[in-house]
Amino acid sequence: MSESLTCAYQFVHEETVNALQAKILPSSTLNDLGEFFKVFGDPSRLKILTLLQHAELCVCDLAALVDMSISAVSHQLKILRQFRLIRSRREGKNVFYALADDHVLTLITQALTHLSE
Amino acid sequence: MSESLTCAYQFVHEETVNALQAKILPSSTLNDLGEFFKVFGDPSRLKILTLLQHAELCVCDLAALVDMSISAVSHQLKILRQFRLIRSRREGKNVFYALADDHVLTLITQALTHLSE
DNA sequence: ACTACACTTGAACAACTGTTCAAGTGTAGG
DNA sequence: CCTACACTTGAACAGTTGTTCAAGTGTAGT
Lengths: 117, 117
What we know:
Mean pLDDT of chain A: 89
Low-confidence stretches of chain A: 1-10
Strand order of the largest sheet of chain A: 1-3-2
Number of helices of chain A: 7
Number of strands of chain A: 3
Radius of gyration of chain A: 21 Å
Oligomer: homodimer
Largest interface: A-B, 58 and 58 residues
Number of domains of chain A: 1
CATH topology of chain A: Arc Repressor Mutant, subunit A
């Protein structure tokens, strides 16, 4: 940050900066929030989520629908599970997945609205 | 996808899969949506966005606040600009940045709500 | 014109992400 | 208990991302 020395310590609007310093979210919050948004940052995961909106699906059906290998889908499902966006339920040899709650879709819908403006 | 051959073409719930096939969002939409969410997937960018909520800021002040080099901040601002999340305005030697619209924050707030549940 | 400040930009480089591949677990049927 | 199916998992590998560094543009003052 050598280039910013003059700017940061001499010509910066001190009052403005000092006033805002207190409003900065804790870095743990910013990190968690970032990780959360990253989950939605992948088309495959978005595809899976929007599909689960309509029905509870097993890994096999999901793989067929999103046109990915079962392994790849399973890896993504693990991530979605870790963030509690989906829930799994075993029924015999199959494992069925469903959305954990509805306001996951609210977020996606809202982003879609923003994009179409 | 050799491992999924049996599953995908023999034991899949054909009716379920066929019915959902039509509900899959176009890949262009899924890609755009993914790119959009990726922008929110970085703590630095989130920090910048939440700061601009409170005031219009020049690059220099922002760099001081987020504790990053001016160059790094400028790179991130470029991305935020490309997605029309922020607007820039030159005033003499300074360039001031502001949020393009408010419902960018609605999205962040909503994600925060989800995290604290 | 020349210098200084404020910012931008492109290239390079390390760190991270998503897929594949190979090997594993768990369940049902014979 | 052996095989087959449904899925999971770890390692590896290519592609992507965010930062730094160096060089650039634009504006103001002298």
